[in-house]
Amino acid sequence: MRMLSHSFFATILLSLIRLSISKPEFVATPPLPILPLPSYSQLKWQQREIIMFLHFGVNTFTDSERGTGNENPAIFNPTGLNAAQWVDTAVEAGVSLVILTAKHHDGFCLWPSKYTEHSVIRSPWENGHGDVIQKLVEAAKPRGVDVGLYLSPWDRHDRRYGHDKEYNEFYLAQLQELLNNYGNVREIWFDGAKGADAPNMSYYFSDWFSMVNELQSSINIFSDAGPNIRWVGNEKGFAGKTCWSTINRSSLSIGNASIEDYLSTGDPKGTDWLPAECDVSIQAGWFWHKSESPKKLSKLLEIYYKSVGRNCLLLLNVPPNTTGLISSDDVQRLREFTTAIDTIFGTNLAEKWYVKASSQRGGKGGGFGPENVLDSDHLWTYWAPRDDQDEDDYWIEFKGTDDGVRFNVVRIQEAIGLGQRIKRHEIYVDGDRVASGTTVGYKKLHRLKMGVVHGHSVRIRITESRGVPLVSSVGLHFDPFWHPRGQ
After folding, report:
1. Which of 138, 170, 378, 480 has the smallest count of CB within 10 Å of its CB?
2. Backbone angles phi, psi at 201, to 5 degrees
3. pLDDT tens across 318-342, in order?
4. Closest Cα to residue 53, out of 334, 341, 442, 336?
5. Could you tell me the pLDDT band of residue 389, with boundaries at 50, 70 and 90?
6. Which residue, among 260, 243, 114, 104, has the nearest Cα to 177 in the 3D structure?
7. Separation CA 448–CA 407 (nearest Å)
8. What is the dihedral of CA 54, 59, 65, 71, to 10 degrees?
C-alpha cells in the first residue's frame, strides 16, 4: 500500500513538472518584405505629409520670380523680419519641416557666406550682420520644427558660373558652410532649373551628394533623380493617379523634361525606393507679390487629395513678404486649410464597425487580423492574408450598425515598411462599386465622384498585388467641403 502511494504521488508530480515546462505557443511571423524598402529617414519624411517652402530673397523686393543676378543687395531690407512667426505659422498648420531658399537663381545668399559678398553682408538689414538661416534655426529648434535648405545650382550672379571646375568648387564650399554651421538639416533641395540663355555648365551632382551624406547622416536629398526623394514632375502639386514610390534611378537625370511622366507615376518594377514630393505655392508665384492672393480653399483641398492622397508628400510654399512676415491672408488661408483637413480626417466613421477579411495570416490570434486596420498605428500593424489564398480575391469588409453611416471619402494605407504592393483595388458599398484605383502606398484617398453615400457595409477588394497585400489602415470620412456637380 505504501508503494502504491509513492507511485501515485510520483505520477502526479511528474505531470505537474511536464505542465510547467510545456512548449510555448509561437505566433505567426511577419511576411517577407518585397524590395526595395524605404530607409528610416524616408519613412519619417513620408509621415510628415505636408511640409513648407519659404521662398524669400531679393525677388521679394523687386516683385519678380526670377532675379537677374544684378540686383543691389541693399534692396534686401525686411525691417520686421520675425522667423518665429514663420515657425508659429508652420506649427499651427501641423507642419514639422520648413525649407528655406538659402540661395535662389539670382545668387543672393541669405547667410554671410565667406565666398561671396552678394549676400546679407551688403544689406542694410541689421547693418550687414544679419543671418536669415540662423534666425530660422533658432526659432525652429525650441518648437520642434526641422529645417531644410535650397541652394540653387544655377547662379546668375557669380562670375565662376560657366566654368565647371571653379564653380563646382565654389558651390561645394557653400554647401559645406550650410551643412556644417546650422545644425541638423533634414532635407537639402537641388533642382536643374536653368534659363535657355544660361552658360553651359556641368554640375557635379555625384560629388555634391557624396559631400552631403558625409556631413549629415540623417538628411534626405531631393532632386529629379533623388537619391532619397524625387520631384513629381510638375509644379501643380499633383501626382499621377498611379504613383509608385519605386523607380529606376538609372533612368533619371536632373533637368530632363522627357522623364516628367515617369517621375509622376514611378515604376512597379523599380529597383530604388524614391518617393515623390509635390511642390506648389499657396499663391500663383513662388515669391511674395502684393498683387497676388492665396488659392481658394477648394483648390488647396484638391491639391491635398492629389498629392498626399496619391502616396506623395505635399511641399506647400508660403512666402514671407517685404516686411519679413508671412502675410495675414496666407496665414488665414493656411488656417482654413488645416481646419478643413482636421475636420475631414479627425473622425474615422468605421472605427467601431465589425471587420472581417478573406483570410488572415496565422489564423485568429496570429497578430495579422483585419482589426489592425482600425487601430492608431498606420505603419507597423496591418492585416495580412494567408500566403496560400486565391490571389484574385483578397478582400476586407466592414459592417456597421442598422443605421449605417454617411461618408464621401475612403482612405486606404499600406504597410510600406515591408514594400509597396497593391497594383489595383476596388471599393464596394452595400454591394455596389463606388470607386476603383491602382496604387495605394502610404496613403490613398478616394473622394467619391458621386458624392455622399449612405452605407451599411464597405468591402475593399485587392484585385492585383505584388505578393500578398498588407493593409495598415482604412478609414471612412465625411468631407463637408466636397460638392460634386448635382449635389
Report:
1. 480
2. -155, 130
3. 999 999 999 999 999 999 999 999 9
4. 334
5. confident
6. 114
7. 9
8. -140
* Closest alpha carbon to 469 in 426, 410, 418, 430: 418
Report pLDDT digits (tens) over 13-50: 555 555 455 555 678 999 999 999 999 999 999 999 99
Secondary element (H or E) of residue 461: strand 457-465
The Cα 387–Cα 371 span in angstroms is 19
Write the pLDDT tens digit of every residue in 119-145: 999 999 999 999 999 999 999 999 999
**Residue type for position 484:** P
Q: How far is residue 410 CA from its own chain's centroid?
A: 19
Record the cell numbers describing residue 3, joined without a space: 508503494
Amino acid identity of residue 344, one-letter, is I
CA 403 to chain centroid? 37
Across the chain, mean pLDDT equals 94
Spatial distance between the Cα atoms of 137 and 369, rounded to a whole number of angstroms: 44
Rounded Cα distance between 161 and 483, Å, is 51
Tell me the whole-structure pTM to 2 decimals: 0.94
Task: Determine how many CB atoms are found less than 10 A away from the CB of residue 70.
Answer: 11
405 Cβ neighbours under 8 A, 6+ residues apart: 349, 350, 454, 455, 476
Type and span of the H or E element at 425: strand 422-429
